[in-house]
Design a protein that fits this description.
The complex is a heterodimer of chains A (about 170) and B (about 90). Chain A has about 170 residues and is mainly alpha-helical. Chain A has 6 helices and 3 strands, in the order H-E-H-H-H-H-H-E-E. In chain A, about 25% of the residues are buried. The chains are: A mainly alpha (about 170), B mainly beta (about 90).
Chain lengths: ~170, ~90
């Protein structure tokens, strides 16, 4: 603590000086497309689980039927929730992170965000693996643009999740 | 204005600095917030706009709301140049 700063703090208590703000937004600038990508993978995973879920058949016991319906309900609810997370995360990047100069350098960005919203809605509404894969595809494209704006190179790798789909990762460090 | 300034820092503003001279590129200035009456901002002069106004930006480009959002500012919005900057 410098002596001058302590002195100023003393003055400021007695007669507060006007505050000059340096930011009108969250100053930390912490953004990452990872949450959106993770949620898109979850939507794919839920479609796979729903696809592999065995119907218990007419001879099943009440418990077996209940288990089937409970699992199906959970998978569908999680699928819908994560499709909505993709939309939320992309909206935050689009509204708060991306600046006009980023759009200038990536003219397709607005259209890509629009397509991501549509893809997420479709993946949310339907049990449709192709729609979920399409959602991951556009989310990955946004991730590539995001890292490009930070001059950080990216790689397309096989995700280390049960979906085993391609995912975009930044090459950090 | 990170990394040059942090919350809690004090700035001493010379209100007479632009009575005669003009703001120059790179000057750190305090200005009246064009979007928030009564509020003040601290920004850096980036350039003189073709309209005669000044284009001000924050040092923390990713998080700053500045002329990229509210456009160039008129000279009479500038309170003065930051003459001294006191850190803790």
């Amino acid at each position: 603590m410098s002596l001058l700063h302590t002195l100023f703090r003393g003055f400021d208590r007695v007669r507060p000086a006007p505050v000059a703000r340096a930011h009108c937004d969250i100053p930390c600038g912490i953004y990452d497309p990872h949450h959106a990508q993770l949620a898109a993978h979850t939507v794919i995973r839920m479609n796979l689980l729903i696809r592999d879920l065995k119907h218990p058949g007419p001879e099943a016991t009440l418990e077996q039927k209940m288990e089937f319906h409970a699992k199906l309900g959970r998978y569908v609810a999680t699928k819908e929730q994560h499709a909505e997370i993709v939309k939320h995360e992309i909206r935050v990047l689009w509204g708060d992170y991306f600046k006009p100069e980023h759009v200038q350098a990536n003219p397709g960005l607005h259209d890509l965000v629009f397509r991501t919203m549509k893809a997420a809605s479709k993946a949310r509404q339907e049990i449709n693996l192709a729609a979920a894969e399409d959602l991951l595809k556009v989310t990955n494209e946004i991730a590539e643009i995001f890292w490009k704006t930070k001059n950080i190179p990216t790689a397309r790798v096989k995700a280390p999740y049960a979906t085993e789909r391609e995912t975009v990762v930044p090459k950090l460090g | 204005m990170a990394p040059s300034m942090a919350p809690g820092d004090f700035v001493i503003v010379n209100r007479w600095s632009y009575k005669l001279g003009k703001p120059a590129e790179g000057d750190v200035v305090v200005l009246r917030d064009p979007e928030n009456p009564g509020g003040h901002l601290v920004k850096r002069i980036a350039s003189l706009a073709t309209s005669g106004g000044y284009f001000v930006v924050g040092d923390n480009l990713e998080a700053s709301r500045d002329s990229r959002a509210f456009g160039p500012i008129a000279k009479d919005l500038i309170v003065g140049r930051v003459w001294r900057h006191v850190k803790p």
